[in-house]
Design brief:
single chain, about 65% helix, elongated
Amino acid sequence: MENPRIIRGEACLAEGIAWLSQAEPRFAEAARLTGLPPLRLRPDGFAALLDAIISQQVSVASANAIRARMAEAGYLDEARLGAACDDDLRAAGLSRQKARYAKALAEARLDYMALRQAPGEEVVKTLVALPGIGSWTAEIYAMFALGHADIFAPGDLALQESARRLFQLDARPTEKAFRAMAESWSPWRSVAARLLWSYYRVDKGREGITG
């Protein structure tokens, strides 16, 4: 099985946008309005997934505060977190549920190096098997921590709304319909996602422009 295509820089985004614009003219219009979207790449590994758990259903400020306490206690390290008790993790700011998720992640001892070489579907399947990690988190990890070029997050509401606007749909597509719709954007689905996120921000801003 071939290794997944990895986005490593802006040249990859430009290549993907050129391909998408040729395949679907509305992407060309989106790219004209947005320019090159941000790469948004970040390091992979245990800390990245722990950060996703910490950030669930809390404000950015709260997540940052919890992350700082976790770092101070040394719990961004997989082994130290795995050895911590629930009371220690609660003291660092995690809810009881998130403490359970974090412990499960640490105890899973994922082979992060192997995940870098795995197909996107395998990455998502591996991650969603862990408590507290759903499809969206797994897809975002594959997209931005691993840099996969052909992964999509059809459950993302901003992507759904952006597609509704760009493709002039009557309503936001369901997750199932959106996943099927995005199949024609392969092998550059994560570039399509970046373009749609950028288009969403630009188009929302254009609503206030008159004349």
